[in-house]
Fold:
Amino acid sequence: MMVMVIIHVLIIGVVSWRIHAISNASLKRWFWSLLIFKLTAGLLLGYIYTHHYTESDTVYFFREACALADSAKEDLSGYAVSLWRDSTGAFTGESRTLFIVKAASLFALIASNNYWLTSLYFSWIAFTGAWWLLHQINRVFPQMTFPGMIGLFVFPSSVFWTSGVTKESLAMAAIFVLAGIFIRIWNREPLTKLTISMALIAIWVAWTLKYFYVGVFFAVTTSAWLTRWFAENKMRAKARTPYREFVLFIVMLLVMLFVVTFIHPNFYPRQLIEVVVENNRLFNEASGNEGIIHFQQLEPTLGSILRNAPWALFSVLLRPFLWEAVNLLQFLAAAENMILILLMIFAVRNINAATQTPHRLLLIAVMVYIIMLGVLLALSAPNFGTLVRYRVGFLPFLVILLSYRLLPPSWEARLLKSV
Structure:
């Protein structure tokens, strides 16, 4: 067993060493400490859910993955074929769960059904996706390197809930890759065969696990790019005011949201609203009155959704408060929310700079992504315990924005000094 652990740790270490070798010089000094922190978070998540909960997603995923991996020992070709089917023997769960089970079974197979090694691999994949995004941020927006490091690798929820054998580990790794590729597109860099391949794989993974993340991401980023193209090519320089760019962005966003409705049945306006309200009802029935967001007469109508949207956004960003927490994880989330409140207070001083930046469209796009995804998540999954995990879909980006100029530039430069 010890020999197997050493072999897999060496595999992760050797590949990581190669990634470290090609990383930007200003990031290298933090690579190994951030990687160890990430891997440790995955092990901690596994420890908490295997020792303090009778049943959890991560344990369930891995148990099914082991059963699937065991089938490979008897019929390897049948196992390989099952990876491309919509069911695997006795297991016929929803596609998102089935995807995770299949992915985990690959690592369980090579790691002899060792949960902890599988957790290391999942956390490593999540780390690699986040590191790719940080690398792109460092190249194109060097002033955002320190905020990027905080949002992707230091802020507790961003690290913890995207580690270990969870859907979020792979889904957010894919979203981070897509965000990094979009930064390259925004910077007018040509897409190589490698980046195109990365984009296709990331879209497949993210779409399978969290299709609504991809839908919002696609609508927002495409709208921002189209707005910039139109403003630069069709508008006179004097007419390109922040206000007009914002209005144009909203118009483009409405168009792209209409386009997105054709991508998935649950994106049809009526269907989307009904799904959100139905999920809200199911969470309310399962949770009772404790640890949940209560909305005012939420009904499957656009008007009801819009009326409750401000409270949904407020709640997903800042709740639970300390006095609302009903268990240890919620208490830790509440403490983290206090940090978010402080970051928001500090960020007020940067409002004027935000309106003057030449990348204000990109800033608007990130903010709209946070708002749209946050509202949808809070309305459809109002349970604080669940929402704390789900909101990692936007939380790293929010922390990146709020951490801008958190420290004096000289301090940040010293922290990022090349090795």
